[in-house]
């Protein structure tokens, strides 16, 4: 059964700092990996989606990498801003058997960017 | 930009009562999902739905749960007899096509509180 772990659980940084969020997964047979942002009491916003054949994806100040063989992904946020404060979730699509696929989430990293 | 909508945003119910959570997926999407997130816990997959039938369901999705697409726009999750442990945020999501190269788009969620 796929398990997704995110470290750290919470992170507080001063504005302007670059930071890295970590995600690991137990079964490397994934189809893709997504990073989501969740604001308090709100839904999930997809930030980046990395296909299993890719090694990284970039969108603005965000860069996500994927090392499928080691079961790891990182989300790099450059020049952090207070508006980046949110919980960041990592999720993988993997085969769950009988022709089905599942999206499995980590618990998230709660990021606070201090002005 | 098209978005997934969910109603109600909050629902309080008594244990044993039936609840129906409603979702309007993005109009040209064909694959629909329900997830739940118990407070402080991971987002968990409940069920996926395609072509008017369930394509996959998790262990959580027992006989108390059902899904329906009653018309061309709504997608509903019914909990037949709510339990205290059903208290959670319920997210609906939709995806345009069959491949996992496309992202799932999430609604803002319905917060369900069972008393």
What does this structure look like?
The complex is a heterodimer of chains A (115) and B (115). With 115 residues, chain A is mainly beta. Chain A has no helices and 11 strands. Chain A has strands at 4-7, 10-14, 19-25, 30-38, 44-51, 56-59, 62-67, 72-77, 86-97, 100-105, 109-114. In chain A, strands 2, 4, 5, 9, 10 and 11 form a 6-stranded mixed sheet that branches. Helices cover 0% and strands 50% of the residues of chain B. Chain B has no helices and 11 strands. In chain B, strand 7 and strand 8 form a beta hairpin. Chain B starts with a strand and ends with a strand. The chains are: A mainly beta (115), B mainly beta (115). Chain A binds chain B through residues 4, 31-32, 34, 36, 41-46, 49, 51, 89, 91, 93, 96, 100-108, and chain B through 4, 33, 35, 41-45, 48, 55-56, 58, 91, 93, 100-101, 103-109, 111.
Reconstruct the topology from this structure:
The complex is a heterodimer of chains A (115) and B (115).
Chain A (H helix, E strand, L loop, with lengths): L3 E4 L2 E5 L4 E7 L4 E9 L5 E8 L4 E4 L2 E6 L4 E6 L8 E12 L2 E6 L3 E6 L1
Parallel strand pairs in A: 2-11
Antiparallel strand pairs in A: 1-3, 3-8, 4-5, 4-9, 6-7, 7-8, 9-10, 9-11
Chain B lengths: L4 E3 L2 E4 L5 E6 L6 E7 L5 E8 L2 E5 L7 E4 L6 E5 L8 E8 L9 E2 L3 E5 L1
Parallel strand pairs in B: 2-11
Antiparallel strand pairs in B: 1-3, 3-8, 4-5, 4-9, 5-6, 7-8, 9-10, 9-11
């Amino acid at each position: 059964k796929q398990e997704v772990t995110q470290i750290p659980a919470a992170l507080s940084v001063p504005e302007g700092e670059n930071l890295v969020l970590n995600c690991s997964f137990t079964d490397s047979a994934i189809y893709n990996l997504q990073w989501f942002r969740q604001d308090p009491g709100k839904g999930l916003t997809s930030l980046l989606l990395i296909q299993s054949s890719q090694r990284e994806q970039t969108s603005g100040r965000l860069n996500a990498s994927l090392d499928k063989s080691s079961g790891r992904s990182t989300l790099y946020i450059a020049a952090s801003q207070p508006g980046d404060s949110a919980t960041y979730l990592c999720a993988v699509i993997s085969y769950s058997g009988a022709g089905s696929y599942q999206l499995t989430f980590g618990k998230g990293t709660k990021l606070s960017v201090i002005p | 930009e098209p978005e997934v909508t969910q109603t109600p945003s909050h629902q309080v119910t008594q244990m044993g009562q039936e609840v129906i959570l409603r979702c309007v997926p993005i109009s040209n999407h064909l694959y629909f999902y329900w997830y739940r997130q118990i407070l402080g816990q991971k987002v968990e997959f409940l069920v996926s739905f395609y072509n008017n039938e369930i394509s996959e369901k998790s262990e959580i999705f027992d006989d108390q749960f059902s899904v329906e697409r009653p018309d061309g726009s709504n997608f509903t999750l019914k909990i037949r007899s709510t339990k205290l442990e059903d208290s959670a945020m319920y997210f609906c999501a939709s995806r345009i096509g069959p491949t996992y190269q496309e992202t799932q788009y999430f609604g803002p969620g319905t917060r369900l509180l069972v008393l």
